[in-house]
Amino acid sequence: MLIVMHHNAQRPEIRKVVKAVEALGFTAKVMPGAARTAIGVIGNQGWVDETPFADLPGILQIIHVTKPYKLVSRDFHPRDTVVRIKKGLSVGGRNPFLMIAGPCAIEGRDQIMKTARMLKKLGIPVLRGGAYKPRTSPHSFQGMREEGIELLAEVRAATGIATVTEVMSPEHVGFVAKNVDILQIGARNMQNFDLLKEVGRTRSPVILKRGLSASVEEWIASAEYIMVGGNPNIILCERGIRTFETATRNTSDLAIIPLVKDITHLPVIFDPSHATGHRPLVAPMSQAAVVVGAHGLMIEVHPDPERAASDGPQSLNFKEFRALNKKLKTLIEFTGAKTR
Ligand code: PEP
Ligand code: MN
């Protein structure tokens, strides 16, 4: 439930509403706005009776929220959330466009270090690299797991680049959060509720990918799980959805970027690699994502895509990535956003 106060409501009136909310056993979240203050009711599991508020002065309107999410919605938090990754590096709001790049999977020290150094030279602030890999077949490369996380920590210490990696199981969250800057929840785990809860207990930035066939509402409700747990540092990532179309690996759903920016206050980025599955489509779809207002991109890059252990056909080589990065800078600035 959301209680919207009159524009001229004073502090004592707001306090009375907060007290009435608390008397019902719920938490009141006071959200001052430019024109009027709103008070969000948190902790209720169903319909909240309006009777205790009927005679309170200063209330303009009571809105019952029937959606499966609240805290991540703009109704509850009108201003853009800024997720701080580390000192001097944030995403969301008016912060510079966030570029993330790196291999699908960490394959060894040489491969990941080479990639980090190339990115560093270009001023790309975040390196991606999968250590725990969610593979369709158990016969495919499963990732370097703990050893991969240790390599990421090594690369971070050597180059200063921030890192992101996928975490698949609640037991690994603590170890991964200690060693990398951003946790990634992959498409296949978007509704792994125990994992969402565990990540919600940390304060690590989290990239939450959209599920393979998840509706926008399901995706946002998953973000709500993380936020309810106490972790507000969520970055949503559109990576294409499964449709009847097989010409591309997934169907890029770019329309939901402006849509989700409207209904939530969270930063939204795009992954053109998994969204298309084909190297030649990565550049045009990256450009399209910039134009529709994404806060950033996560792109798969490999020193030798032909020999990549996973997702080679959608990975750019260094030369292709450099060219794309250059092109994107001009486009990002053209849209009025900042680059690093
Ligand atoms: C990945 O980022 O390598 C990955 C497995 O992505 P997704 O979860 O979007 O399929
Ligand atoms: Mn991949």
Based on the model shown, name its key terms.
340 residues, alpha/beta, Alpha-Beta Plaits, 4-stranded antiparallel sheet, elongated, binds phosphoenolpyruvate
Describe this structure in words.
- The protein has 10 helices and 14 strands.
- Helix 5 (193-200) packs across helix 6.
- The longest helix is centred in the last third of the chain and has 17 residues, at 318-334.
- It starts with a strand and ends in a 6-residue tail after the last helix.
- It is α/β, with parallel strands linked by helices.
- It folds into 2 domains: 2-63, 2-Layer Sandwich (Alpha-Beta Plaits), CATH 3.30.70; 83-334, Aldolase class I (TIM Barrel), CATH 3.20.20.
- The strands form 3 sheets. An 8-stranded parallel barrel has the order 7-8-9-10-11-12-13-14, surrounded by 7 helices. A 4-stranded antiparallel sheet has the order 2-3-1-4, covered by helices on one side.
- Helices cover 33% and strands 18% of the residues.
- The protein has helices at residues 11-23, 109-122, 145-159, 173-179, 193-200, 216-228, 256-263, 272-276, 279-291, 318-334; strands spanning 2-5, 27-31, 38-42, 59-63, 83-86, 89-91, 98-102, 126-128, 162-166, 182-185, 206-209, 234-238, 268-270, 296-300.
- It binds phosphoenolpyruvate (PEP) and manganese (II) ion.
- The site of phosphoenolpyruvate (PEP) has 9 residues, from loops.
